[in-house]
Amino acid sequence: MHTSTAFLTDHYELTMVDAALRSGTAHRRSVFELFARRLSGARRYGVVAGTGRLLEAIGRFRFGDAELEFLRERAIVADRTLDWLADFRFSGEIWGYPEGEVFFPGSPLVIVESSFAEGVLLETLALSILNADSAVATAASRMAHAAGGKPLAEMGSRRTGEYSAVAAARAAYVAGFSATSNLEAGRSYGIPTMGTAAHSFTLLHDSEREAFEAQVAALGTDTTLLVDTYDIEQGVRTAVEVAGTDLGAVRIDSGDLPVVVARVRQLLDELGATRTRITVTNDLDEHTVAALASSPVDSFGVGTSVVTGSGTPTMGMVYKLVAHENDEGEWVSVAKKSADKASVGGRKSVRRAFNRRGIATAELLFLGDGPGGEPEGSELAASSREVLVPLVEAGEVRAEHIGSAGIAAARERHRACVAELPPVAMSLTRGDPAIPTEYR
Amino acid sequence: MHTSTAFLTDHYELTMVDAALRSGTAHRRSVFELFARRLSGARRYGVVAGTGRLLEAIGRFRFGDAELEFLRERAIVADRTLDWLADFRFSGEIWGYPEGEVFFPGSPLVIVESSFAEGVLLETLALSILNADSAVATAASRMAHAAGGKPLAEMGSRRTGEYSAVAAARAAYVAGFSATSNLEAGRSYGIPTMGTAAHSFTLLHDSEREAFEAQVAALGTDTTLLVDTYDIEQGVRTAVEVAGTDLGAVRIDSGDLPVVVARVRQLLDELGATRTRITVTNDLDEHTVAALASSPVDSFGVGTSVVTGSGTPTMGMVYKLVAHENDEGEWVSVAKKSADKASVGGRKSVRRAFNRRGIATAELLFLGDGPGGEPEGSELAASSREVLVPLVEAGEVRAEHIGSAGIAAARERHRACVAELPPVAMSLTRGDPAIPTEYR
Asked: Which Pfam family is one of those matched by this entry (chains A, B) (predicted)?
């Protein structure tokens, strides 16, 4: 693995820098926006995730000897471009939606203001991270709501790339999950990790009883025993016989869960294990979680569906040049003209409007001077709040957005932002965004 | 980034090792199989990818001080387990389908024979890599067939996690793509990289003409000019005026492609640019590629759909204990009993059967002594071939399966294996596997 993130990018970002350095346009001050034209999967709201990871990755976006040598060997850029890349440090400004925020079509999630060359270099990396992480977080947020306050653990490492698994654990945690099975996510991000045993552990032993005895001897009676390798009812009886009525939990990974869970709860209670919890893990998604929310399930483990964005593995975000200075130093708004991929040029600021009960009513995108200004009119100031925050100032990453502190803040922010959405946002059906995006 | 891959795994793999070391079952000789119960997405065949990456990752599966300290701090395993982990080197045998092979439901893609503890530790990592990479390769193979021999470039880095992007480029290349936009895939795996410019480059300049002039000055007339930022027809005219009739290619990224492509081809010919190629890149998948295969398109760039497995971002593979030795040294076949997740216990070998014309007719799974034996009966030997190959012997990775040589071999193998499939395999509709899996 290379420490540098500079090659996690598309070839053409470098050829554009090369050509722009040659033509003299590379240093034109430019504004790029990262946004989604629509909410993939007809979600009611999106969840921003990955921002902290992006900021950390930008700090490691360096062209060292290994990268420069590869570019030279393959003759991808000219020598003077190599010199420019060797010195590259992002020195511009980045505003954006803070991690954990909700978003809507057109929301400028990341706004990069820098020279063209510096801004264009970050395109692929920014999109990779935000598209993937936000897809997971958007699905996870729906699941967290569907679970009705019961804890959810992310257990999908095996169903996505080995490094995407770490990022997915982080994104799910930001969006309301409480733990992960992934050890690297525990180490890198401080997320609680969990897990006890798989069916293979039971099958390894000469009997289910011996497997349970081995697990309880190592992990204590507060462990979670997997009871469905053979017969579930017998499994529950053996579990309580081995661990006693202080058994922490039983896990069920197969069968018709609403029926099975009710029977297992009844059986545990009959056996005196009234405090033993039930956790279920059988290919759950937000719909099956919602269907189980009122059953006597105590916690959920979700795998495939959360790490793959529950049918929407990428958010379809794009990164577009929306304005640049010309040779006279005047700002020019720009946008691609083709009908099916139109974008709105120009610098923007964003405010979220609320009604008197504090419920969000619209995402207001103001064309003008960009983020950081004051709203015109006291009424607007009172009934809306600024959404964009500074993420990078003169090349310096704002510390509150990265590391474990950034994740904790994002998790809390997400909880607060979802609570402000109108009830329709919680619908699991496909539909329109919960609030409209209005250009002012 | 950590060099070790040992934490790209689930917490419970370690608690199982911990409990099994304590109960004395950890050292039981065991056989694990990695397989798919069905072909996700109702594909007609699957494509094995990631095997080489897995073998490389196993070589870096080490518990160093950083990993051991984390496990100690969080009290995840007992001290004697930490000692065992500190010394861990995979020392067992691995057989499997060689990378690039096609597969079917039940095909044992990776067979790990080792102590239980060594084999169970590899579960999450093996599944992460093969599930993700094979999903991409399976989609890519369909696209390569749909393109009818025209070259395909993978351009989806921005639509998947930043490290999954590198793996996706590799998997697509194994399955028949000819290039990628991803620079790290170029460096790590020797895959040809490509790309020239995005719309932002055109928008940066004061006119489309100036942008084209800048690009041609830097990249030469053999470059690919993106002609759809404003009006496509005018874009083509300007491109030929600037670059001359030796212009390498034009790229079209929007519009109703069959119609647009025909018009652009006609226009290029009228302008004398008869050798200028046309490449298209507008959210293509295997279906839109197939629809364009007979149009005057010269090459395709595919992004989102290939890196997300075209609707099937993970193959749903599982990793199951199928046999272990008991304390008497006898092999015991094992399998989970629950109705919806049954697996077939026991050691297996695999032969692919062919008809007289050399077309595959069935995947034969023999329960018995495992891979490496001789088939019973000369007729079977003549009409079928062994599918499994040794990947790791006594802990040593076979060199032909890793690195650039492994990728080149996998790519060639894939081409040969697909050519042996019956015509129905090439159908893009959902359906049954192209050949049945038969247990003998």
From this structure: NAPRTase
